[in-house]
Design brief:
About 35% of the residues lie in helices and about 20% in strands. It is of the alpha+beta class. The two termini are about 20 Å apart. InterPro entries: Thiolase, Thiolase-like, Thiolase_C_2, Thiolase_CS, Thiolase_N.
Length: about 375
């Protein structure tokens, strides 16, 4: 497992709503864009890992559109961590010496409105439970309220996360929304579950993203190291047992577990990270994840945001893409879209939103249930 793995190609479509598109068609577009990014074709790919939460055999159906070469295809689902898990499986396959060039792709078509959990028969699961409502806004509202109770974090601080990320999105042509949202507008929008308003919720969109991973040896052989980015650490964790987890998933603990694995593997710490794409499914989550990822001390998330540290030009800019709040959150694609954003900065190709001098970046995504994937990438 000593072979370094590089991302040599990556891209994503602009997230939005595409009424006539299917997940395989969305995936095919991103896959071809990522292959074009490194000058390779589907014939060069030795395996495919496809992430999607809602349909079956999306990977094979994608290859029907871009080239059926007979390679192994693995379809992955891990809630919101689906794309990141597909990426990690591709990384593992190369680390294990099975392949030299692997394609990871994530895609999703999302309905409008609130996500409602369903059982295996497709029937909605009742939203009221032992820990209150199980709707996503309510779950993450509770996360925010617990942080407020323990550390005094305010409604305004949570709202400022949305102001920041919506501002970053105006610099990202691939974001669903590219619009400033002043603090008063965020705080005054429709209340979903206090302290979360509508403009503090992630956007359900259609989208796809892809990455081409390659062994270091093969990248050198092909002369593709110039824009390559090294995958330096990868962590994936699930919920450890606790009495609390019997009624509600603990995204804080699972994030800390995955981050610890990634940091140890990469031999770096939070102080070494230059930028982060983290899972801001709701504004409350971002402040909590500052602490879970070690970017600031326990209980300091609100003050860390207020200091400007996580804004473009700050100590460690967070969600330069606009995050899930503005870029959008097509579940199966999100994890790889985060990889695309970090790789773009490490290459120095992010344009107006470029984090200058970025050498190490981190991606983080949580699938409630729970699965957390954290990746640390480094400029070669």
């Amino acid at each position: 497992m000593s072979e370094d793995v590089y991302v040599i190609g990556t891209d994503m479509i602009r997230f939005g709503r595409f009424e006539d598109a299917t997940p395989p068609r969305l995936a095919a577009k991103a896959a071809l864009m990522a292959l074009d990014d490194c000058g390779l074709s589907i014939r060069d790919v030795q395996a495919v890992y496809s992430g999607n939460c809602t349909e079956t055999m999306v990977g094979q159906r994608t290859l029907q559109l871009i080239g059926q070469t007979g390679v192994p295809v693995v379809n992955v689902t891990n809630a919101c961590a689906t794309g990141a898990t597909a990426f990690r499986e591709a990384w593992i396959a190369i680390k294990a010496g099975l392949y030299d060039i692997v394609l990871a792709v994530g895609s999703e078509k999302m309905g409008k409105g609130m996500l409602v959990p369903k059982n295996s028969g497709g029937t909605p699961i009742p939203s009221e439970g032992l820990a209150g409502s199980n709707t996503m806004p309510a779950v993450f509202a509770q996360m925010g309220m617990e942080h407020s109770r323990a550390y005094g974090t305010t409604f305004e601080q949570f709202a400022r996360v949305s102001v920041k990320n919506h501002h970053h999105s105006t610099l990202n042509p691939k974001a669903m929304y590219q619009k400033e949202t002043p603090l008063e507008e965020v705080m005054g929008s429709e209340m979903m579950a206090y302290p979360i308003t509508k403009l503090m919720c992630s956007v359900n969109v259609d989208g796809s993203a892809a990455a081409v991973l390659c062994s270091a040896r093969k990248a050198r052989e092909l002369g593709l190291t110039g824009r390559a980015v090294r995958v330096r650490g990868s962590g994936l964790a699930s919920d450890p047992f606790s009495e609390r987890n019997l009624v509600q998933a603990d995204v804080n603990t699972v994030t800390r577990l995955a981050a610890r694995t990634a940091y140890e593997m990469a031999s770096v710490g939070p102080q070494d990270v230059d930028l982060v794409e983290l899972h801001d499914c709701f504004a409350t989550a971002e402040i909590c994840h500052y602490e879970n990822l070690g970017l600031c001390g326990e209980g300091e998330g609100g003050r860390f945001l207020d200091s400007g540290a996580t804004t473009l030009g700050g100590k460690v800019p967070v969600n330069m893409s606009g995050g899930l709040l503005s870029k959008g959150h097509p579940l199966g694609a999100t994890g790889i879209a985060n990889i695309y954003e970090i790789v773009t900065h490490l290459r120095g190709e992010a344009g107006a939103r470029q984090v200058e001098g970025a050498r190490i970046g981190m991606t983080h995504v949580v699938g409630l249930g729970s699965a957390c994937a954290v990746h640390i990438l480094e400029k070669v």
